[in-house]
């Protein structure tokens, strides 16, 4: 057996009873109308709500759960008996690639909302420890985003937006 295959078998056996699943709620962002439909859209900072459900093997305890999106991450230390974690992680806009949204939010298009199935990915790791040492389980989830086109007639006067360049 090759070294890689041996490590894969050992890793799989150590994690056979560990379980980790991840779900993310859609984030929301408002954007201003654009002049050019070919123009890429930069996103503002986004808040993603992520839920991880986890279980270590019967003879192990959960040491930590780490959630990462782009360069933002948070580490949590679950308490004995915890089986789930809900967290909100804020990702600065400059850590998410610009997106192409075609004709959405340009003059002549009256659509007010658009759902993007994935603008980033949440990576989650569960670290368990038993008498033989630590083991790690990984899972990921796409992060959906609902865009809202903030047109002048619908703009909330309490929210400030930068003036478009003239």
Kindly provide the name of the CATH class: Mainly Beta
- Nearest-angstrom radius of gyration? 21 Å
Task: List segments where confidence is low: pLDDT < 50 over at least 5 consecutive residues.
Answer: 1-16, 154-166
**From the coordinates shown, what is the CATH architecture?**
Sandwich
How many DSSP helices? 1
- The whole-number mean of residue pLDDT values reads 83
Briefly note the structural class of the backbone: mainly beta
Quick summary:
The protein is mostly beta strands and 166 residues long. It contains one helix and eight strands, in the order αββββββββ. It has a five-stranded mixed sheet with strand order 2-8-7-4-5, with no helix packed on it. Strands 1-3-6 form a three-stranded antiparallel sheet, with no helix packed on it.
